[in-house]
Design a protein that fits this description.
The chain has 105 residues and is an alpha+beta fold. The chain has one domain: Glutaredoxin (3-Layer(aba) Sandwich), CATH 3.40.30. The chain is built from four helices and four strands; from the N terminus they run βαβαββαα. Strands 2-1-3-4 form a four-stranded mixed sheet. Helix 1 runs parallel beside helix 3 and helix 3 runs antiparallel to helix 4. It is globular and about 35 Å long. The two termini are 17 Å apart. 30% of the residues are buried.
């Protein structure tokens, strides 16, 4: 499995719950702090990952999930079944169904 990255801000409650579940599940993840005051979340590099410029954002290989509820569902499914590629599309529905965050092969 690829390295999971969680883009977060330390004072964000939504980021905290995604980080907390990662910790409780014992999943290794690289935490990437995004400086909101500096406007990092509105820069082109971040907007390419999440067009809304919001945190948290989780990357697992080619899978990008940009909604805290969808992240929690994804992490629970990942742990319980290991079928994260087939389930990632369902996370897109949770985050508004725009179809742009994850494209199945």
């Amino acid at each position: 499995m690829s390295t999971i990255k969680l883009y977060r801000h330390a004072l964000s409650g939504h980021s905290h719950r995604a980080q907390l579940l990662l910790s409780l599940l014992g999943l290794d993840a690289k935490l990437v702090d995004v400086e909101l005051a500096a406007g990092e979340h509105k820069q082109a590099a971040f907007l390419a990952k999440n067009r809304f410029g919001q945190l948290p954002l989780l990357e697992d290989g080619d899978i990008v999930i940009a909604d805290s509820n969808a992240i929690l569902v994804y992490l629970a499914w990942l742990l319980s079944s290991g079928q994260h590629f087939s389930f990632a599309k369902k996370c897109d529905v949770q985050q508004g169904g725009n179809g742009k965050q994850y494209q199945p092969e």
